[in-house]
């Protein structure tokens, strides 16, 4: 199973999603972002960092998640060859949509199934408007998944743990984390349909 997380825009949740999926699917992350810091929180057993001018390891078999940086990376073409799915996370804000559209057009050339993740959502109207923007500008029938804005994801990011596991721990946390945990389980299920 090979999943690519791509958007030329930074700060849209690529590394958050890569982390949560790697912990859920028990896979390696190949970190292609030269500024990425995932090995600090997740450790070098999980994260394999590839420098900007280094070749990507040719992984034919085996489970891996590719976490890209926020720029147009030519290595996308290479890693797409064995990919099952390309996830494009984006924030439904005006300043994110142009770059997201550009990223989508680049990803479309790869002929790999694409799933948009509308991330850090504050209200439903933003989702509707941003999805319509992409549909109108591409005439494509796109598939998307929604993740709300929540502090819980920021907290587990710092700890490098799975939100689903974190929600299972006892006490007050359970209540606070239950909802986002259910959402992330749904994301995992949605992704499994592509594999
Ligand atoms: N759904 C969310 N709710 C709240 N904060 C989020 C959410 N998704 C990501 N973040 C936060 O946004 C910031 C950028 O996310 P990150 O995954 O590093 O983006 P990217 O890898 O695309 O640059 C991080 O601080 C992360 O914790
Ligand atoms: Mg990142």
From TrEMBL:
Residues 3-161 form the CobQ/CobB/MinD/ParA nucleotide binding domain. SUPFAM superfamilies: P-loop containing nucleoside triphosphate hydrolases. It comes from the Bacteria. Pfam families: CbiA. This is CobQ/CobB/MinD/ParA nucleotide binding domain-containing protein. It comes from Poseidonibacter ostreae. The lineage of its organism: Bacteria, Pseudomonadati, Campylobacterota, Epsilonproteobacteria, Campylobacterales.
């Amino acid at each position: 199973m090979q999943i690519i997380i791509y958007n030329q825009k930074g700060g849209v949740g690529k590394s958050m999603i890569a982390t949560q999926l790697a912990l859920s699917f028990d896979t390696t992350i190949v970190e292609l972002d030269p500024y990425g810091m995932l090995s600090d929180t997740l450790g070098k057993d999980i994260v394999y960092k590839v420098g900007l001018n280094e070749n990507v390891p040719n992984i034919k078999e085996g489970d891996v998640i590719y976490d890209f940086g926020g720029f147009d990376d030519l290595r996308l073409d290479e890693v797409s060859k064995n990919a099952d799915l390309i996830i494009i996370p984006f924030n439904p804000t005006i300043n994110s949509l142009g770059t997201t559209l550009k990223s989508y057009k680049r990803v479309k050339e790869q002929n790999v199934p694409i799933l948009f993740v509308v991330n850090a959502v504050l209200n439903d109207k933003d989702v509707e408007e941003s999805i319509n923007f992409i549909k109108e500008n591409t005439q494509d029938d796109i598939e998307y998944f929604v993740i709300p804005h929540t502090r819980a994801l920021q907290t587990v990011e710092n700890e490098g743990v799975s939100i689903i596991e974190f929600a299972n721990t006892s006490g007050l946390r359970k209540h606070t984390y239950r909802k986002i945990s259910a959402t992330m389980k749904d994301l995992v299920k949605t992704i499994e349909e592509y594999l």
